[in-house]
Amino acid sequence: MVENRPLLKLFTHAVLILGVLFLCFPVWMSLVASTHGPGALSKSPIPLWFGDQAWENYSQLIFGGMSEAGGVPVGMMMLNSLIMALGITIGKIAVSILAAYAIVYFRFPFRMGFFWMIFVTLMLPVEVRILPTFDVVTKLGLLNSYGGLIVPLIASATATFLFRQFFLTVPDELVEAARIDRAGPMRFFWDILLPLSRTNIAALFIILFIYGWNQYLWPLLVTTDESLYTVVMGIQRMVNSGEQLPVWHYIMGTAMLALIPPVIVVVAMQNLFVKGLVESEK
Amino acid sequence: MATLEIKSLGKTYPGNVVAAEGIDIAIEDGELVVLVGPSGCGKSTILRMIAGLETITTGDLFIAGKRVNDHEPGERDIAMVFQNYALYPHMTVRGNMAYGLRNEGQPKAEIERRIAEAARTLRLEDYLDRKPRQLSGGQRQRVAMGRAIVREPRIFLFDEPLSNLDAKLRTQLRAELKALHRRLGATFVYVTHDQVEAMSLADRIVLMNAGQVEQIGTPLDLYLRPASRFVADFIGSPNMNVFEGVLDGEARALTLSGGGSIRFADPLPAAPGARVALGIRPEHLHPGDEGPGRMELTVTFIEQLGADTVVHGTLGNGREPLAVRLDGVQMREAGASLPLICSPEHIHLFDADTGRRLN
Amino acid sequence: MQKRVIFKARGLPYLLVLPQIAITVIFFFWPSWQALESSFFIEDAFGFSREWVGWQNYRELFNDPGYLRSFRSTLIFGLSVAALAMSLALGLAVAANRVLRATQGYRTLLIWPYAVAPALAGVIWYFLMNPSLGIVAYWLKGIGVEWNHYVNGDQALLLVIVAAAWKQISYNFLFFLAGLQSIPKSLIEAAAIDRAGPVRRFWSITFPLLSPTTFFLLVVNLVYAFFDTFSLIHATTEGGPSDSTSILVFRVYNTGFIGQDYGGSAAQSVILMALVIVMTVVQFRYVERKVNY
Question: How many Cβ pairs within 8 Å bridge chains A and B?
Fold first, then answer.
């Protein structure tokens, strides 16, 4: 910054390191706990360093599952999570980009009406209207299906707005040039607008993937069939497993498995993610 | 190659904003016509109506004798070069040129042939596989031209294609464009706000103002016989000197509104006692004591341009500004007095109210 | 709002918006309407019959001390989460913005909790604070604090506040950092030339210029705490002990799915919807106007 003060610099780094420690510590403890057997986790204080049960714990979880939680292998839950997350992500992007395209590049009756209809959905998270939404899904016979997990979460005002915002910055002359080059609306969309939106799509993909992966209440309600459990909601069955004491080494192992994929996505595609997040809220 | 005919064309935007009205222009096959005028005069609107990018509110548009009002831009057999080039940023130079041809369904070999030819003409061979962002402004401009050329259209449309370039490059590309026109022999319609560009490029100029055509003619027509005060003012640099005043009973002397008067040997072609605007180009005034149209300039400052010198000053009691262009390097002190004369054939006379030409 | 040039096509635009509109109508407008409608009915447990009761469901809600307590705990919860997550994030962002070359590195280490599901954040902290073997509970005992969120309602509330704030710091950090980076350097330098020290510069220049970001984050954090933390609570305290962590959005679920009181749950939904709409409108109003400049 402006001046050079060694003490201030030291203090700055100290603040940051403390912050990093505060954020990392809980996950560190979970990671450590997931490598111990039940014995080490039965009395306080619990160990702060890794144990030797990592392989046993994780292989049991991924392939065998936990009898306390219905014995569904966590590997399968993760697969369900992946399907749900990808379904929601791809669905949202596809549906929103088309809607945004129509709203920006065409003029038609009720255009603004549609725009506002999409706009108001920005306001109501599914948790708020959970019971009637559940009702609707039941009536449509979508319980215990991937469709029921995915489709109701696809409508997204945020993604539509992001695309709309981006389309408005695309120079008008490109459409004009395309029209002179004999490109019709769909060809323009496919050949020009879609390739130009690549960065936005990628950034949105990260954000929506995390959103989809982390869904909790919705899968909890629409799936009673254990083979459709997702990992984030599955962990709840383990924590609140009734009479028994929670088996923490398994629970923490599952927690690790549940948080690793989205964390990797965020860290690996950090720049794209930050750009997408900050811009989508502007 | 084709003729282009515009008949009482008009454009009204929502909210009754009239962008152009009653435009009649007939463009010959192979002609280079420049639409010029200040910003907002409607020149771009007309070009965009020709391209089909803007709907036509009134009137008719004929390309090669066929009415094309309702044709899609892609069906009009035109190509357009945009001010910001509008190159597809994610496609290579080759891809940009090929796109329209692919959409037309041209065979691959034909596309390749045309691109190769255009690239040779425009010296773009080394850049065919680059993306637009890797090119300089001048190169992008050439790619935009190339994209138009490969279409082999009957009419080329240019929307201020040189205005994003620096002055030197602009002059160079202007010459190239003129050469290209000669070689292709196609019909060019070119829009610019720069009168120098218009003068140097055009076979004929269409000068527009406030949504209407002020004058159509060759560059020299417009320079020598401007049809209105607006045209006179727009064409030529430095601007024409224009004085408003009242003619005397013999129409031989003009009493200036700013004070003072100018006398001529013969009567001016206007009603005696009329209010008129009298125009003289700076290059048509010469130092001299004896002769018609004599006036006395008080020098305020001079511009040394090297090849010539522009002397700025005032007439009469100091309220009428006047500029004179003198050949070569000339020295004049501020406050000095400079007697000038002007021969009658260089006098432009306009009606003071309507601005139309009188002589 | 729209392009100067548009395509002419009659059916196509409708076809393009159709999927989004269909999903919105089926999964958004229809349920919202149903919530509104059934908030005026009492339904029997099996859904066979229902009776129009007017405002009764609402009246009952506001006469229910439990519901009013939920309002209070929601407010405490939301404000605490926002205050905690935002102040820590601001401190970290200011620090990260100062270290220049290391900013990127620290950013990587600070943003990943964004990806952690609230439910997981809850479960992990639940484990850390577990009265019998949680490491934090153990340390607290060392300094003389008896921790047991199974019986102590205040401690349970504190637990979910910390867990919810922990997860939200990353998000706030990113926005504060972006806000800080968009402040022109010349302003800070001008202030330095005007002999303002780092602390004064922060409070007199940086913080006021950050106010749009701060306000935006305040609303986002409140929305997050009010609604997105449902899973955090559901996976851990389940609203207890004795309703102490039963925030409004959790109560909607509990009344409807556990208590089978359809009308009461619907009335709560409607109230919550009204709350979100007000917050969104407020946010748009102010964000559009840009607080402070």
Answer: 60
Q: Does B149 touch chain A (CB under 8 A)?
A: no
Q: Is A2 on the interface with C (CB under 8 A)?
A: yes
In a domain, B146, yes or no: yes
Placement of tokens 């919705």 in the chain: A218
CATH number at residue B324: 2.40.50.140
Using CA atoms, how far apart are residues B124 and B142, in angstroms rounded to an integer?
8
Residue A44 lies in a domain: no
Q: Domain C65-289 is classified in which CATH homologous superfamily?
A: MetI-like (1.10.3720.10)
Structure-token match 């050079």, residue found = A4
What distance lies between CA B353 and its chain's CA centroid?
25
Tell me whether A180 touches chain B (CB under 8 Å).
Answer: yes
Instruction: For residue C14, name the pLDDT band (cuts at 50, 70, 90).
Output: very high
Q: How many CB atoms lie within 10 A of CB B15?
A: 5
The residue segments making up the domain with residue B271 are 238-351
Cβ pair A181:B78 closer than 8 A? no
B357 in a structural domain: no
Count of domains observed in chain B:
2
Quote the CA–CA distance of C168 and B310 in Å, as a whole number: 70
B219 close contact with A: CB closer than 8 A: no
**CATH code for position B54:** 3.40.50.300
Asked if A176 and B88 come within 8 Å (Cβ–Cβ), the reply is no
Determine the pLDDT at residue B247. Answer: 87
* Domain-embedded: residue A125: yes
The complex scores an ipTM of 0.87
pLDDT tens, residue by residue, C225-257: 988 888 899 888 887 787 888 888 888 888 887
Question: Do B74 and A180 count as a contact with CB atoms less than 8 A apart?
Answer: yes
Question: Does the CB of A18 have a partner CB in chain B at under 8 Å?
Answer: no
Q: How many domains does chain A have?
A: 1
User: What pLDDT digit, counting tens, does each position of B58-116 carry?
Assistant: 999 999 999 999 898 888 889 999 998 999 999 999 999 999 999 989 999 999 999 99
What is the tens place of the pLDDT at every residue in A92-110? 999 999 999 999 998 888 8
Same domain, B306 and B210: no
Contacts of A203 in chain C (CB under 8 A): none
DSSP output for B205-254: EEEEETTEEEEEE-HHHHHHS-SBHHHHHHSSSSPPEEEEEEE-TTS-EE
Residues B343 and B254 in one domain: yes
